[in-house]
Every structure is written in structure tokens, then in C-alpha cells.
Amino acid sequence: FDPNSNSLADQQSGNEVVRLGSNESRILLMLAERPNEVLTRNELHEFVWREQGFEVDDSSLTQAISTLRKMLKDSTKSPEFVKTVPKRGYQLICTVERLSPLSSDSSSIEVEEPASDNNDASTNEVETIVEPSLATTSDAIVEPEAPVVPEKAPVASAVNPWIPRVILFLALLLPICVLLFTNPAESQFRQIGEYQNVPVMTPVNHPQINNWLPSIEQCIERYVKHHAEDSLPVEVIATGGQNNQLILNYIHDSNHSYENVTLRIFA
């Protein structure tokens, strides 16, 4: 994966280059920098869109993750790369290796070896401790000795040592069971229109946006007019509609996923 060119090299297909969209590339970059760590949806929104000056709907992240999985040929039921953690976020579960030269630590090792020789030599030295003798005279004052208080023997704990271990084992087993036996629900969409042979989709539970349909039609017609037929979007996902603004996500097929783009319409 090369984040500079937004591309993947498929090692199983003769290093075939797969182009990623900018959103999918930034998601994969953040996951790769923190492998095996669960990243929240808010963290991904912040890195992918807000830092670029955009504020998009939550469905944009869902669609970008879905497109990234298609690029990686990953399965949602048995993922090998991107795993959905219910109610938390997403996690990169594969091994990540950074292809850059690493600095050698031989100098630090060479510096440490003489120090160990000095330590061995110091152990051979004999240190003499001179203890001052206690001079006693006939005029010495004998002080009374302090009474010796017997130490109390520690009370043996009556708690079974296996109980804390069992509790710890159950605490570790519970989240594993939740991850194994729960499947995250995929977002559902419904079609609200079709313009220039491009279907317009919106989430099932999304509020009605029928009054935005003329504006959506104009945007799609202009987009199709300025793009080649083989790179037209396969669908457009519309979200928002509140606060006099609507968000359109243009989704392309896997061969042109790098052209995926998010547009915002103001009333």
C-alpha cells in the first residue's frame, strides 16, 4: 500500500496496481499506522474528512469502508483485513510491515560491552570496611535496653487462590464471546430516483428529501456530461437535507473507485 499514490499492489496477482479513492486511502493509512487497535468512527471522521475541511454524514464512512473492503477483496462475515467491532469502530487485523530501512543498533551494543567488563572487574576488587571499635570505660553509662515486642505472625488468608483466577478468566472470555457470536448490521438503502441511468439511494430510515430531487437531478446531469461513459458512477447516495444542505456521495465501480467523490448542495 502506497499512501502517496493512493494505490495497492496485489502480490497474489503479479503486483497488479489497484487505485484507491482519497477517502479509502486515508482510512487504510490510519488503520495501518495503528494495527490491531480499534479506531472509533469519530476518529476516522476526524482524520479523513474534518481535517480536510469537510463535514459529512455517517453513511459516507460506511460506504467508504465498504468500498475499501471491495478493493481488498475482503469479506464482512470472515474478514482478513478490516474487521467491524460492534458499537466501537473498525480494526485492521492483518500483519503490517513498514517497507523502509531501519537504523542499526550495533553501535549501542558495542558501547555496552566494555561497561560489562568493568563491572566484572569491579566485582573482583576487595573492599575493606573498617568498623569502629566500641571503647568501654569504667565511667560508661549503661542505658536500659528497650523491651522487645514480639512480631505478630501474619494471618493466613482464608480466600481460595483459584477464585481470582476464575474471575479474571471469565472477564477475558466474555468480550471474546461477544465478538464471535454477534454480527454487525450492514446499512440498508432504498432507491428514491434514477437520473441518466444512475440510481439515487438513501438510507432506509432517512427522512424524506423529495423536495431535493430536482437539485439532485441537475447535479447528476452535469456530472455525467463532464465524465466518460466508462467512468460514470454506479450509484449516488444522498443524505442530509436538514439545515438547507444535502450531501451527495458519487460511488464508482472497483475499476474507477479513485473517482469516488463527496459533494455538498446548499439550498
TrEMBL record:
Gene3D superfamilies: Winged helix-like DNA-binding domain superfamily/Winged helix DNA-binding domain. PROSITE patterns: OMPR_PHOB. GO terms for biological process: phosphorelay signal transduction system; regulation of DNA-templated transcription. Residues 116-126 have a biased composition (Polar residues). Keywords: DNA-binding, Membrane, Transmembrane, Transmembrane helix. Residues 104-126 are annotated as: Disordered. Residues 1-94 bind DNA. Residues 1-94 form the OmpR/PhoB-type domain. SMART domains: Trans_reg_C. One of its GO terms (molecular function) is DNA binding. InterPro entries: OmpR/PhoB-type_DNA-bd (IPR001867), Sig_transdc_resp-reg_C-effctor (IPR016032), WH-like_DNA-bd_sf (IPR036388). The chain crosses the membrane at residues 162-181. The keyword Transcription does not apply. This is ToxR. It comes from Vibrio parahaemolyticus.
